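Comment thread on ticket #2218

A.B. wrote:
> Attaching the input chain for the structure job we discussed in standup.
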Amino acid sequence: MAMTIQHKLNALHVFCRLRDMGISAKAARRLIRLYERMVRHFLYTS
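C.D. wrote:
> Ran it. Output below, let me know if you need it in another format.
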């Protein structure tokens, strides 16, 4: 289950979903940078 959560919240996966929603690549990259700063620590620490 943890692997599934990590996959769904992976920055590349989220980026692709943002693009699927019609957000421009530039805006999606900006959002992903913020997203990674906020979420990475919680996802990948034991």
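A.B. wrote:
> Thanks. Noting for the ticket: The chain is about 80% helix and 0% strand.
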